[in-house]
Amino acid sequence: MLISRIRRIASPKKALATTAVAAAAAGLALTAAPAQAASADSASQAQAIAHQMIPDAAQYNAFSNIVSHESGWNVTATNSSSGAYGLVQALPGSKMASAGGNWQTSAKTQIKWGLDYMNSRYGSPAAAWSFWQTHHWY
Prior knowledge:
Elements: H1 12-25, H2 35-39, H3 43-53, H4 57-70, H5 107-121, H6 125-135
Helix pairs in contact: 3-5, 4-6
Organism: Streptomyces mangrovisoli
Protein name: Transglycosylase SLT domain-containing protein
Keywords: Signal
């Protein structure tokens, strides 16, 4: 089915409505992106947040090395086999709710939880990185 072009657009709302009607007539569906995708922090934003939260260069570098290996600084990274989630690959990811209700999309919340975990289990991000280098997990 051929859809004719709209030569003149009176307003963005009208253009969207016209496109939706045309798509529906053609048997297509328009869907919105997931809400969490719009609020998820980018890798560079997550790194900047971590840098602010971890002022010591050695500790930041260790934390960064772990996160780079675990998630590539992707706030919504999910391990398909284990279900580990987020920057620090918490398992289950819902454990990060203890650091904030926005744990699924907030780099700051995930970093806070990850730092608390590394400090309580290993003593520091540097010690966690040392363990990671030997075992390839932490």
